[in-house]
Amino acid sequence: MRSIRLLLLSLAMSIVLPAYAALAAAVSITDDAGRTVEMAQPAQRIVLTDGMGLIGLAAVARNPVGLLAGWNKGRLDTDVLEAFRRDGPAIDAVPDIGELRSGSAAVEALIALRPDLVVLDPYYRSAVAIRQLEAAGIAVAVLALTPSVRDAEPAYGIKRLSMLIGREAEGQAFSDFVGARLERIRARLEGLGADDRPLVLLEAHAGRGACCLVAGAGQGIGDFVDFVGGRNLGADLVPGMAGQISAEYVLAADPAVYIGTGGAYMKAAGGLTVAPSFIASQARASLDAVLQRPGLAGTGVVSAGRAHGLWHGLAISGINIVAIEAMARWVHPERFADLDPAATLAEIDRRFLAVPLTGTMWVDLAPAGVEARP
């Protein structure tokens, strides 16, 4: 009997010990700032300084909300919050750190949450004294949890985060998934000449004011236009992330494609309400209203049906590959006719996201005389 007990104990330990060793294994990464970040074991309590990073975390963690010691809730799209709230009420108990401001108060607030890891979005890097947090025993990783078409390695930030939480296999799988789809787009555009790149007006937060707040170059979603084979109208006009141009300029430029971004947050301003919480017909009606403004109503994109609306939250999230594929279809419909962003989103929901995201992510304005799809 004693030998049987010893055998059972040995078998149990052979299962438990490797799992414990994996949990306690030291991890080391190089973050977006080129810093070496080391932890004695995978993080169990995380602070996200950009709430939208929750989607990137959810792509590699089984229980992302359970890992949160705190976050900047104000940076989270309301539709994402509702999706996670439907999954469970625990998200409402996560402490909100708010917008980080320079000074000791921001650091003290983070230390008070007792995290073992602060994921510092590059936007807030100058607002936080990293050395002060590290002196308190808190690891700090500067990571953008939104894949960039400029990164040599796809989903760089999300993959590094997966290593810090002991989910490296999941991070590698997600990185490979995104990388394969980006490479498919690159391959289709090989040899594309300058004259074959249509002019694209990418209007951020469409309808919030007069036409048009356009995306700049090298600052995020404006890069997507160039990546999918278009010419971003704002690239040579706006030195930063976004800037205002006149309706007269838009009319004179006569873009071939219009893409507006918006969300539920735009409802009060009468802007573009493309968002999971709005049905497609509502989103399309808001797109039509946005296109009636001076500067846009007179362009050919309306009559040609080359005007589109995109959920801004999708474009700035960890699963922005779906937005990039949608834009590729809009900019070069003949080259990407078989590209199916809806199928890509469904696969992400099935294979990766702990909480699937569904609903209206984009809409198209039908050409003149053609009935829009429901």
Structural description of this entry:
The protein contains 15 helices and 13 strands. Strands 9-7-11-12-13 form a five-stranded mixed β-sheet, sandwiched between helices. The N terminus is likely disordered. With 374 residues, the chain is an alpha/beta fold. Helix 7 runs antiparallel to helix 8 and helix 14 packs antiparallel against helix 15. The relative contact order is 0.12. It has two domains: 159 residues, Rossmann fold (3-Layer(aba) Sandwich); 175 residues, Rossmann fold. The longest helix has 23 residues. Strand 5, helix 6 and strand 6 form a beta-alpha-beta unit. It is globular and about 60 Å long.
Summarize the structure.
The protein is an alpha/beta fold.
Query: Hey, roughly how much beta strand do the residues contain?
Result: 5-15%
- CATH topology label of the largest domain: Rossmann fold
How many structural domains in the coordinates?
2
The secondary-structure element order is HEEEHHEHHEHEHHEEHEEHEHHEHHHE
Distance N to C terminus: 70 Å
Shape: globular
CATH 2nd-level architecture of the largest domain: 3-Layer(aba) Sandwich
Query: Can you tell me the residue ranges where pLDDT is under 50 for at least 5 consecutive residues?
Result: 1-23
Q: Strand order of the main beta sheet, please?
A: 9-7-11-12-13
Number of helices: 15
Could you state the CATH homologous superfamily of the largest domain? Answer: Nitrogenase molybdenum iron protein domain
The CATH class designation of the largest domain is: Alpha Beta
Q: Based on DSSP secondary structure assignment, what is the total number of beta strands? A: 13
Structural class: alpha/beta
Characterize the biggest β-sheet: 5 strands, mixed
Tell me the helix content. Answer: 25-40%
Average of per-residue pLDDT values: 89
Q: Nearest-angstrom radius of gyration?
A: 23 Å
